[in-house]
Amino acid sequence: MNRTIGIALIIIGAIMLIWTGFTYTKKEKIVDAGPLQISADRQKTVNWPPYLGGILLIGGIVIVATAKKSA
């Protein structure tokens, strides 16, 4: 189980180092006056610091290295 968690942390950490964030579009309602509705597309950005990916990557490597092999 620990080995699986470690591998998952390595993969997530590597992805977070490569992509430091993403942008998505959200439709927001600006005016809602009875039958009249006006909406606009707004871009939202989610960013995370690159060192967080490095911490996850190193943590995953440590977990995999210290996990006992089950035979």
Question: Would you write up a description of this structure?
Answer:
The protein has 2 helices and 2 strands. The chain has 71 residues and is an alpha+beta fold. Strands 1-2 form a two-stranded antiparallel sheet. Strand 1 and strand 2 form a beta hairpin. The longest helix is centred in the first third of the chain and has 17 residues, at 2-18. It is elongated and about 65 Å long. 7% of the residues are buried.
Task: Name its key features.
elongated; alpha+beta; 71 residues; two-stranded antiparallel ribbon; single chain; 2 helices; 48% helix; 35% strand
Task: Tell me the layout of helices and strands.
Elements: H1 2-18, E1 21-33, E2 36-47, H2 50-66
Antiparallel strand pairs: 1-2
Helix pairs in contact: 1-2
The count of β-strands is 2
Low-confidence parts: none
Beta strand %? 35-45%
The spatial strand order of the largest sheet comes to 1-2
Q: Over the alpha carbons, how many angstroms does the gyration radius reach?
A: 21 Å
| Count of alpha/pi helices | 2
Helix residue percentage: 40-55%
The run of helices and strands is HEEH
The geometry reads as elongated
> How would a crystallographer describe the biggest sheet?
2 strands, antiparallel
Number of domains: 1
User: What is the arithmetic mean of pLDDT?
Assistant: 90
Measured distance between first and last alpha carbons: 13 Å
Secondary structural class: alpha+beta
